[in-house]
Amino acid sequence: MTQLITHIIGTGSYLPEKCLSNHDLSQIVETSDSWIKARTGIETRHIAAEGEVTSDLATEAARRALDAAGLTADDIDLILVATTTPDKTFPATAAYVQAKLGVTKGAAFDIQAVCSGFVFGLATADSLLKQGLFKTALVIGAETFSRILDWTDRATCVLFGDGSGAVVLQACDGDKSAKEARGILAHHIRTDGEKADLLYVDGGVSSTQTIGHVHMNGPKVFKYAVMNISSAVMEVLRQADLTIEDIDWFVPHQANQRILDGVAKKLGINESKVVSTVSRHANTSAASIPLALDTAIRDGRIKSGQLILIEAMGGGFTWGASLFRI
Predict the structure, then answer these.
(1) 76-110: per-residue pLDDT in tens?
(2) Cβ neighbours of 138 (radius 10 Å)
(3) What is the reported pTM?
(4) Catalytic: which of 7, 188, 213, 253?
């Protein structure tokens, strides 16, 4: 049956210039390179410069994605920015990106699902394009997570970094039921608010009138991450009538290497199929999947026609997975 299928036609990413190594962190908080690597797999992370805001990172990634797609700002009529660290309480960071890119039509708004934000944003844009409400979309994950870290808390400050990634989407006629169909094939997104106190920021506009800092119950987050992500992955495979063996590349949220390894092992995915950038980028929250995706496309690992599985879990708890053929 012919129907609209959304295609990813360009990707881009951006990392701030400043790079903070584990050794650098050991000068700030009681930790060491060996301690961090053993528990997280992280070696370095990028930190936004003073005055460099989330919309700056998002805009640069968007420009690179547009260049890859061979399009300009005039072609865009929908911008979704997934972020936990907006420039301001309002307007949406997406509105600033729209202005900086010079986009003059359509809509722009933010998605807040923490580390799952890009998956939620991709599912949202996919749905809107398939309904014919828009023609060409930018979905961006961008974070300046360093701004909400307590740099005296080694349990959290070693985990995160800043960065951004973007994809350009367009919908066209296609046969989604075909085994080799290209485009976005399936999504599964969920939230469990009862687990909100396991990963959260202790500030907010209506509660404390402060920004606050990240707090996390690491062991419990790890347990639920492996369980929830695995169930989401199996659901998108079921929707697409595919199996783990059909997957060419697994591009997970780059939370830490232990979670990546745990999910891959539970799903039976060979480690050679896992795209991991966490050692160089740390956890960039909503930016991590599009950043890793763009990295693997540009270095030649991911090729046209291959089947890609992405997944994430974040505060909320939120979690989800998407399946597409690039």
Answers:
(1) 999 999 999 999 999 999 999 999 999 999 999 99
(2) 36
(3) 0.97
(4) 253
